[in-house]
Amino acid sequence: MNRELFTLVKKIINEWDPSGLLAIHCPEDEYHSEINEIIIYLESQENLKDDELGNYIYKIFKEYLEEQFNETREKSIEISQRIIKEINDETYYR
Questions:
Q1: Maximal CA-CA distance, the chain
Q2: How far, in Å, CA of 38 to CA of 45, rounded?
Q3: What are the distances in angstroms from CA 65 to CA 44, 57, 74, 85?
Q4: How confident is the model at residue 90 (pLDDT cuts 50, 70, 90)?
Q5: What is the DSSP string of 15-79?
Q6: 52, CA 20 to 30 Å: which among 23, 41, 45, 59?
Q7: Contact 70/4 with Cβ under 8 angstroms?
Q8: pLDDT digits (tens, 9 = 90+) for 30-88
Q9: Nearest one of 6, 3, 1, 8 to 85, comparing CA atoms
Q10: How does DSSP classify residue 92?
Q11: Which pairs with CB-CB distance under 8 Å and at least 24 residues apart come from 47-54?
Q12: Model confidence at 94, in pLDDT bands (50, 70, 90)?
């Protein structure tokens, strides 16, 4: 697994804190399982569109967090746009 990619996705997901767990001082690795799933998906796709990734992010968090996940599909797509933008940003590869 690409550690740089993991760090990038973790930063964005933790800032989002989709179920508010980090806000109540849960461990900083709270979303690692979901992040790992997202990384596997990212690494298996080519020419990924933000809505495809957003729908996958939404699905993963719904599966893992169930009723603790109250975010919208649209918010998941916004998060996917941030992830894809940062991946495509040339500074990611430095």
A1: 39
A2: 11
A3: 23, 12, 17, 26
A4: low
A5: HH-TTSTGGGT--TTTTHHHHHHHHHHHHH-SS--HHHHHHHHHHHHHHHHGGG----HHHHHHH
A6: 23
A7: no
A8: 999 999 999 999 999 988 898 999 999 999 999 999 989 989 999 999 999 999 999 98
A9: 8
A10: G
A11: 48/84, 50/77, 50/80, 50/81, 50/84, 51/77, 51/80, 52/80, 53/77, 53/80, 53/83, 53/84, 54/78, 54/79, 54/80, 54/81
A12: very low
Report the sign of the C-alpha dihedral through residues 4, 5, 11, 14, in that order.
Answer: negative
Phi–psi pair at 48, nearest 5 degrees? -70, 135
Residues recorded for the chain: 94
What span, in angstroms and rounded, lies between the C-alpha atoms of 73 and 33? Answer: 19
- How is residue 17 written in tokens? 């804190």
Rounded Cα distance between 32 and 94, Å, is 24
